[in-house]
Design goal:
Blueprint (H helix, E strand, L loop, with lengths): L2 H7 L19 E4 L9 E9 L15 E9 L11 E6 L10 H13 L4 E6 L10 H9 L2 H9 L26 H15 L3 H7 E6 L1 H11 L19 E5 L7 E2 L4 E2 L7 H8 L11 H16 L7 H4 L4 H11 L3 H6 L8 E2 L1 H9 L15 E3 L2 E3 L10 E3 L5 E5 L19 H9 L13 H7 L4 H4 L13 E6 L14 E5 L6 H4 L11 H11 L1
Helix pairs in contact: 2-18, 3-4, 9-13, 9-14
Length: 532
């Protein structure tokens, strides 16, 4: 397979800006976010700041000349971020928006407050998410009606006079060929300077990190020099951070491979050609804008009516992309995948069960999308597609109606037990559809991973001037035992948590209270690190 596809599948996966923020209005805007999260001692807002792209970038929507992030802070904490004890700023993984951090952010801020410290958690959104249209998702959630959302996306029904224009392509996405590593790092740097203009505040209070691909991005940030002059270090990435945190990843620059970031030398200048050929990383099925939106629709169905049967799959359009995606994710064996029999669309299941069978580690075949959210209720059989895996199961009775046992209600079986389940299915559903900057990313710019593979690129080398940028600060690493296997070099002062039962997505979504009665470990450990 092409290197870019391998890189993509090694890592995981914004709702578009509220109408008040979606225009190119001048100045900073901050809007409260409503959430059904049980963690109620945390205030969430969506923040948007002006940040025009360079003149050399190809034509793009005015809304893309802004940067946005989700800001989480304690309800009794200071209004000004500079007055907080710490600010954690997180880079998302591949196909991932800011909303993916909602649970770990709330849990961490709440845990720190319980320890007597007021911290903030900022979840960054990539510029490419400005192209997304989540009008239908937001309208369906507000109306409590799945049909409002699916009719908007699949049947041309308008919402408040607006109709879905389809998924962006061609000239609409050509400008993303210019949005690579340098622009991604610059965006974080500019946002930090805008929100925290005092260099001492950034140096002393900010912890920089991310999930999955976000660890590699943070590694580059730590070694980057923004004016390309090593003699002036106030603009160096490491000078904007007091420490680093890695969520099932490592803080290290390089190409994001299956285990650790590795240096892979592509010819200098090759990134331009590759990105121009395909500005957005999309495949004919499984990974593309329509299927990432399908995840949000599945989460919305489970959020609105967890026990509803045959809701979301029946509403999905019949086209080669969706049909092949469903067969890839739900087929039990190669015969079923090739023939389409039994028809996975004929499966009878609750909305919770459909979401669980798409993303749970006992059925989802791709590790970078796996979470531990429970187990199907109904007869199952071992799954051998796309490769044999003793932990994977598929429905065994086409006539049965499948339900879902949540993470805290799973019986001990040959396939799972309570110690290996950590995320509530309802929490995952909420994360997928409620956030104003959503969980899944429709338009991931292919230029970013290509740049990260171009170790010999002269433009990148001109800024990678601080190889000691990472070792200057402590690193907190939360490693999912069933995740991607990224193991860091641990130095004195660093913190490494190895999390039994956690998968790649669980480090973001795990419930605040675990099945052993203890608080969630990523957030409590991260809060202790931030308080140190």
């Amino acid at each position: 397979m092409p290197r870019v596809f391998v890189v993509t599948c090694a890592f995981s996966a914004g709702i578009a800006l509220p109408p008040a923020l979606a225009s190119a209005q001048p100045g900073r805007a901050e809007t409260p976010v409503e959430s059904s999260s049980p963690i109620t001692d945390v205030v969430e807002t969506v923040v948007s700041i002006p940040a025009p792209l360079p003149a050399a970038v190809q034509p793009h929507p005015a809304a893309c000349d802004r940067l946005s992030y989700l800001r989480f802070r304690a309800a009794n904490g200071p209004d000004l971020a500079a007055d907080a004890d710490r600010i954690l700023i997180a880079q998302p993984g591949i196909f991932e928006g800011a909303g993916a951090f909602e649970s770990v952010a709330r849990n961490t801020v709440s845990a720190a407050a319980a320890q007597g410290r007021q911290i903030e958690f900022w979840a960054l959104d990539r510029r490419s998410n400005c192209l997304e249209d989540h009008t239908g998702t937001a309208a369906g959630l507000a109306a409590g009606d799945l049909d409002v959302a699916t009719d908007y996306y699949f049947h041309g029904a308008p919402v408040d006079g607006k109709s879905f224009a389809g998924y962006a392509d061609g000239a609409q996405t050509a400008w993303l060929a210019d949005i690579g590593l340098a622009q991604t790092l610059r965006d974080q740097y500019d946002l930090l300077r805008h929100e925290l203009p005092d260099p001492a505040t950034r140096r002393d209070k900010v912890l920089c990190g991310g999930h999955s691909l976000g660890g590699s991005i943070t590694g580059y940030f730590a070694e980057w020099d923004f004016d390309a002059n090593p003699a002036t270090t106030d603009d160096a990435g490491f000078a904007q951070c007091a420490g680093y945190f890695a969520l099932d990843t490592v803080i290290a620059p390089g190409s994001p491979g299956p285990d650790l970031p590795t240096e892979v030398s592509l010819p200098s200048g090759s990134a331009d050609a590759v990105a121009a050929l395909s500005p957005v990383l999309r495949l004919p099925a499984v990974i593309n804008p329509e299927t990432t939106n399908m995840l949000a629709m599945t989460g919305l169905a489970a959020r609105l009516d967890p026990g509803g049967v045959d809701d979301i799959v029946a509403r999905l359009p019949h086209n080669p992309n969706i049909d092949l995606t469903l067969r890839t994710l739900l087929s039990a064996d190669y015969a079923g995948f090739i023939t389409g029999m039994p028809d996975v669309r004929a499966l009878h299941a609750t909305n919770n069960a459909v979401l669980g069978m798409i993303m749970d580690d006992n059925s989802m075949p791709f590790g970078f999308i796996q979470a531990s959210v429970g187990f199907p209720r109904g007869p199952v059989r071992p799954k051998s597609f796309p490769q044999p895996n003793p932990a994977l199961v598929a429905p065994a009775d086409p006539a049965a109606v499948y339900g879902w046992d949540d993470y805290d209600a799973v019986p001990t079986t040959a396939f799972s037990d309570p110690s290996r389940e950590v995320t509530a299915i309802g929490q995952l559903a909420r994360n997928l559809c409620e956030q104003p900057l959503d969980f899944t990313e429709w338009y991931f710019p292919s230029r970013l991973p290509v740049d990260m593979s171009a170790a010999g690129d002269s433009d990148i080398a001109a800024h990678l001037l601080h190889p000691d940028g990472i070792v200057r600060h402590r690193v907190f690493t939360a490693q999912a035992a069933d995740g991607l296997g990224a193991t860091p070099d641990v130095r004195p002062g660093d913190v490494l948590l190895t999390l039994a039962g956690y998968n790649h997505i669980d480090v973001l979504t795990a419930s605040a209270r675990q099945n052993d009665g203890m608080p969630e470990r990523v957030s409590t450990g991260l809060a202790e690190f931030a308080n140190g």
